[in-house]
Amino acid sequence: MFPSLYYLVPVLGGYAVTSYYLLKNPHVLHKKKRLPFYCRHISHRGGAGERIENTLEAFDNAVANQTHLLELDCQLTKDGQVVVSHDQNLNRQTGHDVNIRDVTYWELPLYKNTLEVTFFPGHVSSGSDQRMPLLEEVFQRYPDMPINVEIKEDNNELIKKVSDLVRRYHRTNMTIWASMSDRIMKKCQAENPDMPIMFTPRRGLILLLLYYTGLLPFVPLRESVVEAYMPSLINRTYFPHNRLMSNPLLVSLQDKLFMQKGLFQHLKERGIQVYLWVLNQDSDYQRALDYGVTGIMTDFPSKLKAFLQRYEEEQRTSGGTQHDVTGDGVQRNRH
């Protein structure tokens, strides 16, 4: 009755088998990306739960707790200085309703004595360092530390100056371009195409579409890093501004679609590292590792360090094989 099915069924079956084989063996079609760093422990804004976010004191604390990657944000001042700050408007961070672009570096107000942790409401951080550092200071202070630099504004001068600093301090292979905007990311790539880049949210949706249609194993990917929130955090420790994003049914659907071991494993086999943010509880750390992610981004570097030490010890005593990432950021296999 439907003679075309005699042809269609074998074709679809062959496609499914080929896709599955290549999903498990991506090296057949793709050369594995080889970043010079492998990150398990990532400090969000330098560890915003333990010290004032994005300060040198926060970064020092993260490094002391054996972080493998510092995550930070950049803005440009009126006098053209690249400063490390998450917000453009400083009311939340300093109590002063001013924009960074409207003041010179020396006119920047100091941080408040305490700040609420954005991704862990009800918890506050404090510290003795209340100054916003220059990105150049961070590069000088941590010459061998991989750093994830998020460009917060569509500003050509900012992008060029960040790229110039990366080149000046010979950090091209160990500094990640990060942005939530496709437009900004394209400009970052054009300015310095040799730096590794993350998936933007739109590219992340395309990644999921490719995975569920079976096309992912056939498609080359320019990105080296996935940085995504773990959906189960929504309405618990992460409260998105978009009300649609916080719908319980949509959150559950996002979690089922994204938290896929097969997807994460395929990406890792292609040399693409998978980081989940912002995880601040042991149960979330454990869930992320159970699903096989590469790295965990946290506001609490010392808490994550302690968890990973316990986790690695349990893996050793249970006789399993694991990837042990030591404080120097080098991946080693343990049996």
Automatic annotation (TrEMBL):
<keyword id="KW-0378">Hydrolase</keyword>
<keyword id="KW-0443">Lipid metabolism</keyword>
<keyword id="KW-0812">Transmembrane</keyword>
<feature type="region of interest" description="Disordered">
    <location>
        <begin position="313"/>
        <end position="335"/>
    </location>
</feature>
<protein>
    <submittedName>
        <fullName>Lysophospholipase D GDPD3</fullName>
    </submittedName>
</protein>
<dbReference type="GO" id="GO:0005789">
    <property type="term" value="C:endoplasmic reticulum membrane"/>
</dbReference>
<feature type="transmembrane region" description="Helical">
    <location>
        <begin position="6"/>
        <end position="23"/>
    </location>
</feature>
<dbReference type="InterPro" id="IPR030395">
    <property type="entry name" value="GP_PDE_dom"/>
</dbReference>
<dbReference type="GO" id="GO:0046475">
    <property type="term" value="P:glycerophospholipid catabolic process"/>
</dbReference>
<feature type="domain" description="GP-PDE">
    <location>
        <begin position="39"/>
        <end position="308"/>
    </location>
</feature>
<keyword id="KW-0472">Membrane</keyword>
<dbReference type="InterPro" id="IPR017946">
    <property type="entry name" value="PLC-like_Pdiesterase_TIM-brl"/>
</dbReference>
<keyword id="KW-1133">Transmembrane helix</keyword>
<dbReference type="InterPro" id="IPR052271">
    <property type="entry name" value="GDPD-Related"/>
</dbReference>
<feature type="transmembrane region" description="Helical">
    <location>
        <begin position="204"/>
        <end position="221"/>
    </location>
</feature>
<dbReference type="Pfam" id="PF03009">
    <property type="entry name" value="GDPD"/>
</dbReference>
<comment type="similarity">
    <text>Belongs to the glycerophosphoryl diester phosphodiesterase family.</text>
</comment>
<dbReference type="GO" id="GO:0004622">
    <property type="term" value="F:phosphatidylcholine lysophospholipase activity"/>
</dbReference>
<dbReference type="GO" id="GO:0008081">
    <property type="term" value="F:phosphoric diester hydrolase activity"/>
</dbReference>
